[in-house]
Specification:
The chain has about 270 residues and is of the alpha+beta class. The chain folds into two domains: about 90 residues, 434 Repressor (Amino-terminal Domain); about 160 residues, Beta-Lactamase (2-Layer Sandwich). Helix content is about 45%, strand content about 10%. It is built from 13 helices and five strands. The protein has a five-stranded antiparallel β-sheet with strand order 2-1-5-4-3. The protein is elongated, with a radius of gyration of 21 Å.
Length: about 270
């Protein structure tokens, strides 16, 4: 069984067990051995046999059509990111996001955009390694983008570098969301280098990563308010926006726009 096939079954089981029977038209009363929907109930609502659905959850090499995937996504009320992840794991095209195999070079004007930003800005490749960043980003992310850093990978920095836990305010919540976005990105790459090695390193080096990875949350990277507690610059607040260049959908461009200092002083007062 391939990693993608096994992950497809685990992902569906995770969502099934989190789906309340009442939301799917079944009674939640009475004795239930497992939380959420039963396999038989999900199979019935999706128009497939219970045996065949069980094979999918067990990770058996069965072919699942786009139509079945659509019905599963509808019954389980998947988000757009979860639906895309489902199709990626099954090796099907959903039409919501392009299947991109772009050239390796970074096309203009992306370098100019990154380097010209007044606030921290950085570019990630498809494996979430930083490939380009500006001076404010280097100053903010000690231990990741600064000279002499041990890793250029954002996940390795977040989970394996002690400096990240001190820098990132609300580290646990931010780390959970980061994994959910990474999972949405990596569905088609689980068996391709360097992902097996990267995941092994994170699993062995971080109990938090192991725990968060097992929740199988899926989302696309969120922007919004981001807070940092820098060892030299103090508390810093930004508004984050993340973009995919149209010509290189595998790249992620993140821009952090500094917020007003008044809110920083208020936040510092709350935490002291």
């Amino acid at each position: 069984m391939s990693s993608s096939t096994k992950e497809l079954g685990r992902f569906l089981r995770s969502l099934r067990e989190r789906t309340l029977p009442e939301t799917a038209g079944f009674s939640g009363e009475g004795r239930r051995r497992t939380p959420g929907l039963r396999r038989e109930e999900l199979a019935q609502l999706s128009g497939i046999s219970a045996t065949w659905y069980s094979w999918i959850e067990q990770g058996r090499p069965v072919s699942v059509s786009p139509g079945v995937l659509e019905r599963l996504a509808e019954v389980l009320r998947m988000t757009v990111a979860q639906r895309q992840y489902l199709f990626d794991l099954a090796g099907k095209h959903s039409g919501d996001a392009p299947d991109s195999r772009e050239p390796e070079e970074i096309p203009p004007p992306i370098p100019e955009i990154v380097l010209s930003q007044p606030g921290p800005s950085y570019l990630l490749d498809g494996s979430w390694n930083a490939v380009l960043w500006n001076k404010p980003a280097e100053e903010l992310f000690c231990g990741w983008l600064s000279p002499g850093s041990r890793t250029g990978n954002l996940l390795e920095y977040m989970f394996l570098e002690p400096a990240a836990r001190s820098l990132v305010v609300d580290w646990e919540e931010r780390a959970r969301r980061l994994i959910a976005d990474f999972r949405a990105d990596c569905a088609r790459k689980l068996e391709e280098p360097p992902f097996p090695g990267l995941l092994d390193s994170l699993h062995s080096g971080s109990p938090e990563f192991r725990m968060f990875w097992q929740t199988r949350e899926v989302s696309w990277r969120e922007g919004g308010r981001k807070l940092f507690r820098h060892p030299a610059l103090g508390v810093l607040e930004y508004r984050q926006s993340t973009f995919h260049p149209a010509s290189r959908r595998d790249l992620k461009l993140t821009v952090l726009v500094p917020e007003k200092q008044s809110s920083l002083r208020a936040f510092s007062a709350e935490r002291t």
